[in-house]
Amino acid sequence: MAKGVNKVFLLGNVGKDPEIRSTTGGMTIASFTLATADRRKDAQGNWSDTTEWHNLVAFQRTAEVVRDYVKKGTQLFIEGKIQTRSWDDKESGAKKYRTEILVNELSLLGKPGGGSGGEGGGYSRSSSTPSTAPASAPDYAEHGITDDDIPF
């Protein structure tokens, strides 16, 4: 069987404060929801927004960043993969399913509540702490590099 691709990119706002727990082995796990919005025109030409809710799970260092910096309303950019778990309900015996995004990379954007008052920042799993640099692209004009130097 050929190798497939399972990669998800999401940009949205956290729906409620993350739930943090630890395994008996000491691994930190963060569970939270992320809302993404889509805007479309209906048949009458009116714009309507639809919200999609995503269940996210982060582990270890990424979960610690979520614990320390992510609250309800925080805007995030997420890179991860989709996974569906199944289990038997203890009470009814019925098969239950839950689709989740396993977070690989996490970028903190703006302020909680969606504000953007210049407080950008980012975190990538390979970083030890979140950056306080603005989320916009850096300006290299002071080094003599202009847009004309970019080959595309």
Fold blueprint:
Blueprint: E1 8-14, E2 19-22, E3 28-41, E4 47-59, H1 60-69, E5 75-88, E6 95-109
Parallel strand pairs: 4-6
Antiparallel strand pairs: 1-3, 1-5, 2-3, 3-4, 5-6
CATH uppermost class: Mainly Beta
Class computed from helices, strands and strand pairing: mainly beta
Question: What is the helix fraction of residues, given as a range?
Answer: under 10%
According to CATH, the fold-level topology is OB fold (Dihydrolipoamide Acetyltransferase, E2P)
* Radius of gyration, CA atoms, in whole angstroms: 19 Å
The dominant shape is: globular
Distance between the termini: 37 Å
Number of domains: 1
Which H/E pattern describes the elements? EEEEHEE
CATH architecture: Beta Barrel
* Strand adjacency order, main sheet: 1-3-4-6-5
The CATH homologous superfamily name equals: Nucleic acid-binding proteins
- Output the number of helix runs: 1
Average pLDDT value? 80
The residue ranges in which pLDDT falls below 50 over 5 or more consecutive positions are 113-137
Residue share in β-strands: 35-45%
| Largest β-sheet summary | 5 strands, mixed, barrel
Number of strands: 6
